[in-house]
Amino acid sequence: MSVDQMTLFTALLALVAAAVAVLGICLLA
Predict the structure, then answer these.
(1) Which domain holds residue 15?
(2) Which pLDDT belongs to residue 29?
(3) How many folded domains does the chain comprise?
(4) Helix or strand (DSSP H, E) at 29
């Protein structure tokens, strides 16, 4: 796995985590 792929994967993971957090807050609010 190259560095570029790792960076892209980490960014995607962070984006998904942020989306889930926003969704969770919306559902709880």
Answers:
(1) 1-29
(2) 86
(3) 1
(4) none
Q: Is the dihedral of CA 20, 21, 25, 26 positive or negative?
A: negative
pLDDT in tens, 1-29: 799 999 999 999 999 999 999 999 999 98
Q: Output the six-digit token pair for 2.
A: 């190259």
- Rounded to 5°, angle at Cα 16 from 3 and 6: 5
Helix (H, G, I), strand (E, B), or coil: what is residue 14?
A: helix
Question: Burial code of 1-29, b = ≥16 C-beta within 10 A, e = fewer?
Answer: eeeeeeeeeeeeeeeeeeeeeeeeeeeee
**Predicted TM-score of the model (pTM):** 0.68
